Amino acid sequence: MTSTTDPTTESAVPSQPQWGSVSTSGHWTGGQRTEIQARQFEFVVDEPAKLGGTDTGPNPLEYVLGGLQGCLGVVLNTVSNELGYSLDGVEVTTTGTLDLRGFAGVPGVSPQFQKVDGEVHVRGDLTEEEFTRLIDETERRCPAYNLFKDSGVTPEFRWTLNS
Amino acid sequence: MTSTTDPTTESAVPSQPQWGSVSTSGHWTGGQRTEIQARQFEFVVDEPAKLGGTDTGPNPLEYVLGGLQGCLGVVLNTVSNELGYSLDGVEVTTTGTLDLRGFAGVPGVSPQFQKVDGEVHVRGDLTEEEFTRLIDETERRCPAYNLFKDSGVTPEFRWTLNS
Questions:
Q1: Residue A111 and residue B146: Cβ atoms within 8 Å?
Q2: How far is the alpha carbon of A83 from chain B, nearest alpha carbon, in Å?
């Protein structure tokens, strides 16, 4: 993930898979609460009281959306570094909408997100053309974005530059 | 998400969508690092130094996998409560495998997970038949599991009971 290869140049790119992996473990502690271990880090997943939890941490889907937002940050930064763009700030808001009947077990209703949308506000010394390329490359190369896209729920982000 | 409706009974289930939403915001702080706000909680997304980060928190995909694990915990607990099953413990390990060429921008290579697998060890006073039903209901109703499944990367979990 540290490649500085220009993404538009097909020469000198590996033709064989370059496998990488990510591993975590989860320890359910009762109720709606699970402790996650990821390398040296630990984080707590829980639900608020109204959803039967003890509200000691974000809920599972908040982590999934936060992971998407962090992933956008990593790819925006990586692509900007590759292309020599100057990035001064990124703010992302995201909302995922679900039909709760799916979680409740109603047959035929998907439990996963029906829609994901939000805004990405970028600040930087970029032309409109560079900004468009940055968006395109980020959406093309972000693992979490493509997890959603491949699931049929492409995140609908409104991207703004310096506004 | 607090329904106690028996999932096999179609009577008394809502026929109209029951919309729920989850929202988070992300503030990129430079490099590979983003701070996420989810209700009253904040968590940090970063990358280890070898991936250009400052290693101040889990990376984006660790949060996504942790969210999946926490989601399994919530649904296992919820379904067990509904069906009167006694659940004593759940341990989940998960590994996501990627072809890093996708992130690096190699045309035609997907950046998202190529495979997700792991183990779910359940302890509880369950018959084999009850355990099978618990797995089926959980995989059917878990939002994060179905995000992966719908993306074409169904998590391949080996489920064990009291072993």
A1: yes
A2: 12
